[in-house]
């Protein structure tokens, strides 16, 4: 077997050339144990391993590919290997060691073959002329400069930032600093343009004291970047609280009574971004801090927050968008069920008809008229009864009121009926005494019945005219 075949065999088996050894003229009945014992007697081989066998059709023998643990190109090896008097000997073949230049050339040719190129294609790069080299360098630098100076496609159609002046109270059409800074920081990250264009857009949105801050900074530091502009504005108009103070305020922000959980999330995230702008937390920590505060600060009676408390440890902390979407979907589902129940209840309540209302109103008016007539007759009867009492009054021994007007004293009752006909109490409805003298229980139903009877028999009592 020649060197080319051995090299191809090693490539197929992904075996390094310096660790490859080929034995030839091996009989088919020779076992692996015999071969390994023969190889073990050569100390320079180290640990050996049989990788593959190949049949020589001409001699009906086999070739054996052996992997060794040592670099065979630096070792002196015998020409044959075998067990004296038992097996062998077998010729040994190895690939000659390659020089570094040859190794690099082989790798280069292999790479060009994979890319579909030849040495002629890269001849200009291998032996370039000074003029060609300078031209290539100039073209490369020109391309880089063009890319740096090229503005995005939407340079002239971008939406301008909202105006900010830093004046208190906030003028109409402007925003407070936190909202303006949040939007500006987001757009600075999204704009695909040079920093000079970003600074120009920031300056366009400023006026008044805010524009003065940036102008002073540019005078002191002409090389200031857009990030430096935002830092100067943060110092001048941002919150004076430190990151630790903002974190404390964040951890003491709780859901208000009647506040939806989605609104509470928006308040939390706004405060959390203030902490992030101050450099108090990292982006990777925001989701965990947000879900922890929702679990701590939400109302105990909020059913959506209760489910979050039960499941937040079973999964990774969701992002703000995922959490807000989940909360809003559940709020809409609860609101839909509540509206459905309200619709069902309202449909079961009977609505009074116009005819029934008119009939009821007419009955009420009739009752009012009857009551007014009864009141008038009652006044006349009272006046008549008082005149009769003054005519028939006879002095008698004073008797305690409680003993004189007891309900169970029938004799007393009959005597008053005889002496004071038509006189009854307007409180309890009993005969023979007045309301001011009564200590009994009030019985309006009985009084009304007595009044109706008196109205029907008006003028028949003794002493009337």
Structural description of this entry:
This protein is of the alpha+beta class. The chain has 5 domains: 95 residues, Alpha-Beta Plaits; 41 residues, no CATH class; 63 residues, no CATH class; 103 residues, no CATH class; 88 residues, no CATH class. It is built from 18 helices and 5 strands. Strands 2-3-1-5-4 form a 5-stranded antiparallel β-sheet, with helices on both faces. A hairpin with a 3-residue loop joins β4 and β5. The longest helix is centred in the C-terminal third of the chain and has 38 residues. It is elongated and about 160 Å long. The termini are far apart. About 7% of the residues have low confidence.
Which tags fit this structure?
five-stranded antiparallel β-sheet, 465 residues, Alpha-Beta Plaits, alpha+beta, 18 helices, elongated
Q: How big a fraction of the residues is strand?
A: 5-15%
Taking all Cα atoms into account, the compactness measure Rg is 56 Å
What coarse outline follows from CA principal-axis ratios? elongated
What's the arrangement of strands in the largest beta sheet? 2-3-1-5-4
> Would you list the SSEs in sequence order as H and E?
HEHEEEEHHHHHHHHHHHHHHHH
What's this model, at a glance?
This protein has 465 residues and is α+β, with helices and mostly antiparallel strands.
Topology summary:
Layout: H1 3-12, E1 20-26, H2 32-40, E2 48-56, E3 61-68, E4 80-83, E5 87-93, H3 100-115, H4 123-126, H5 130-149, H6 177-190, H7 195-204, H8 209-220, H9 226-237, H10 243-251, H11 261-277, H12 283-297, H13 303-311, H14 320-348, H15 354-391, H16 401-404, H17 410-419, H18 444-456
Antiparallel strand pairs: 1-3, 1-5, 2-3, 4-5
């Amino acid at each position: 077997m020649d060197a080319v075949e051995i090299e191809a065999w090693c490539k197929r088996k992904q075996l390094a050339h310096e660790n490859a050894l080929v034995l030839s003229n091996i009989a088919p009945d020779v076992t692996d144990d015999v071969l390994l014992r023969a190889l073990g007697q050569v100390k320079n081989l180290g640990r050996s391993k049989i990788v593959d066998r190949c049949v020589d059709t001409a001699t009906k023998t086999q070739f054996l590919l052996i992997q060794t643990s040592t670099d065979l190109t630096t070792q002196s090896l015998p020409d044959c290997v075998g067990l004296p008097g038992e097996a062998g000997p077998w010729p040994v073949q190895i690939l000659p060691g390659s020089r570094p230049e040859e190794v690099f050339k082989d790798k280069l040719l292999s790479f060009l073959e994979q890319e579909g190129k030849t040495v002629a294609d890269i001849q200009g790069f291998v032996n370039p002329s000074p003029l060609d080299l300078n031209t290539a360098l100039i073209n490369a630098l020109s391309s880089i400069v063009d890319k740096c100076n090229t503005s995005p496609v939407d340079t002239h159609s971008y939406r301008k930032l909202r105006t900010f002046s830093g004046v208190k109270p906030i003028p109409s059409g402007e925003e407070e600093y936190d909202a303006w800074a949040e939007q500006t920081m987001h757009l600075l990250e999204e704009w695909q343009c040079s920093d000079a264009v970003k600074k120009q857009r920031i300056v366009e949105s400023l006026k008044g004291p805010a524009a003065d801050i940036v102008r002073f900074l540019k005078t002191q530091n002409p090389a200031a970047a857009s990030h430096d502009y935002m830092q100067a504005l943060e110092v001048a108009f941002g919150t004076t609280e430190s990151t630790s103070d903002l974190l404390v305020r964040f951890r003491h922000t709780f859901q208000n009574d009647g506040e939806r959980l989605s609104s509470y999330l928006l308040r939390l995230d706004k405060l959390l971004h203030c902490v992030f702008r101050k450099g108090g937390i990292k982006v990777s920590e925001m989701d965990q801090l947000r879900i922890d505060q929702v679990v701590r600060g939400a109302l105990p009676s909020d059913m959506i927050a209760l489910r979050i408390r039960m499941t937040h440890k079973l999964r990774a902390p969701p992002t703000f968008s995922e959490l807000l979407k989940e909360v809003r979907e559940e709020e809409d589902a609860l609101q839909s069920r509540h509206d459905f129940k309200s619709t069902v209840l309202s449909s079961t309540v009977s609505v009074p008809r116009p005819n029934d209302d008119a009939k009821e109103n007419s009955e009420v008016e009739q009752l009012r008229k009857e009551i007014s007539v009864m009141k008038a007759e009652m006044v006349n009867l009272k006046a008549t009864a008082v005149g009769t009492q003054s005519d028939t009054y006879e002095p008698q021994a004073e008797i305690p009121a409680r003993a004189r007007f007891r309900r169970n004293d029938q004799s007393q009752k009959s005597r008053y009926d005889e002496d004071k006909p038509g006189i009854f109490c307007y409180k309890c409805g009993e005969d023979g005494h007045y309301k001011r003298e009564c200590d009994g229980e009030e019985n309006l139903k009985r009084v009304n019945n007595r009044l109706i009877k008196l109205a029907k028999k008006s003028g028949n009592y003794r002493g009337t005219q």
